[in-house]
């Protein structure tokens, strides 16, 4: 039986909701459902789900808009459900803070595996640390990651990071001035049994850079190593 918190499924397809609820409850999960995203934020604040499964294509307020609203109040892991082959939705979803995606139609068994993988990554991001001085912080290049709070301290400004960006920056800051290939980063940031979208790393790097760009001396802290991958520069 699972001991994690409830799962929130947001999808306008009643048959799909019934199927997912029935399947996940067999594995001990408690599943709450919504037919649309109108009360998504309110429900998240009320039940504190461990994972949100969110459909992109919904009438009225679509899943990307709902995800944007969720990310203003919560870093809860979000798995997006997208139409098969809709790469644009996947890229935009990642940019807005999605942690994973699945194309419809999907096998409930794969969804269960994705949920478990997302939860493992989230728990690791919240509790692991290899920082200088103690295990609660990691410092490099004038930046400091607060491991328990999952935040980044830049000068005197504290920034909240989504789970994936947190893990990615943690890996980069743990390997100062060392070029890491995309494959290296995929292995270190995601589980080995997780098939990340091939542009995931680039999208998350872009999000980190957009935050660092606000601070002139840190704007070029993450360097592209052409033909290889990325590097965290200790002295920018």
Question: How do the strands and helices of this protein lay out in sequence?
Answer:
Layout: E1 7-10, H1 14-25, E2 31-34, H2 40-47, E3 51-55, H3 63-70, E4 78-83, H4 87-96, E5 100-104, H5 108-127, E6 137-140, E7 143-146, E8 151-154, E9 157-160, H6 163-173, E10 180-181, H7 182-189, H8 200-212, E11 222-225, E12 229-232
Helix pairs in contact: 5-6, 6-8
As a percent range, the share of strand residues is: 15-25%
Report low-confidence residues grouped into runs of 5 or more: 128-134, 192-196
- Proper CATH architecture of the largest domain: 3-Layer(aba) Sandwich
Task: Name the shape in a single word.
Answer: elongated
Helical content class: 25-40%
Report how far the terminal alpha carbons are from each other.
Answer: 49 Å
The tally of domains stands at 2
Mean pLDDT: 84
Please summarize the sheet with the most strands.
5 strands, parallel
CATH level-1 class of the largest domain: Alpha Beta
Q: Number of DSSP strands? A: 12
The oligomeric state of the chains shown is single chain
What name is given to the CATH topology of the largest domain?
Answer: Rossmann fold
List SSEs in N-to-C order. EHEHEHEHEHEEEEHEHHEE
Question: What is the H level of CATH, i.e. the homologous superfamily of the largest domain?
Answer: Response regulator
Strands ordered across the widest β-sheet? 2-1-3-4-5
Computed structural class? alpha/beta
Cα radius of gyration in angstroms: 18 Å
How many helices? Answer: 8
Can you walk me through this structure?
By secondary structure, this protein is of the alpha/beta class. Helices cover 38% and strands 21% of the residues. It has eight helices and twelve strands. The protein has helices spanning 14-25, 40-47, 63-70, 87-96, 108-127, 163-173, 182-189, 200-212; strands spanning 7-10, 31-34, 51-55, 78-83, 100-104, 137-140, 143-146, 151-154, 157-160, 180-181, 222-225, 229-232. Strands 2-1-3-4-5 form a five-stranded parallel β-sheet, with helices on both faces. Strands 6-7-8-9 form a four-stranded antiparallel β-sheet, with helices on one face. The longest helix is centred in the middle third of the chain and has 20 residues, at 108-127.
């Amino acid at each position: 039986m699972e001991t994690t918190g409830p799962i929130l499924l947001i999808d306008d397809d009643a048959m799909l909701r019934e199927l997912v609820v029935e399947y996940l409850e067999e594995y001990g999960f408690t599943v709450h459902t919504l037919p649309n995203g109108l009360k998504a934020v309110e429900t998240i604040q009320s039940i504190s789900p461990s994972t949100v499964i969110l459909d992109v294509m919904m009438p009225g307020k679509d899943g990307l808009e709902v995800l944007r609203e969720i990310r203003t109040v919560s870093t809860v892991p979000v798995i997006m459900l997208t139409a098969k082959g809709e790469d644009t939705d996947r890229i935009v979803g990642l940019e807005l803070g999605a942690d994973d995606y699945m194309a419809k139609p999907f096998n409930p068994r794969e969804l269960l595996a994705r949920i478990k993988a997302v939860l493992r990554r989230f728990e690791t991001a919240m509790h692991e640390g290899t920082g200088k001085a103690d295990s609660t912080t990691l410092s490099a290049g004038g930046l400091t990651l607060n491991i328990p709070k999952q935040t980044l301290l830049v000068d005197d400004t504290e920034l909240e990071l989504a789970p994936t960006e947190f893990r990615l920056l943690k890996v980069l800051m743990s390997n100062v001035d060392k070029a890491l290939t995309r494959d290296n980063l995929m292995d270190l940031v995601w589980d080995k049994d997780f098939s990340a979208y091939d542009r995931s790393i680039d999208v998350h790097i872009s999000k980190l850079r957009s935050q660092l760009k606000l601070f002139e001396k840190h704007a070029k802290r993450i360097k592209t190593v052409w033909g290889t991958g990325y590097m965290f520069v200790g002295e920018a």
